[in-house]
Amino acid sequence: MATKTPTKADEHELSDEDRKKLQEHMQFLSNRYVINITLAKDNEPAKIFVGDGTTDWHIQRGVDVEVPGTVLHALDNAVVGVTEEDPNDPTKSVTVMRHRFPYTVKRVIERKAPAF
Question: Is the pTM of this model over 0.85?
Answer without folding.
Answer: no
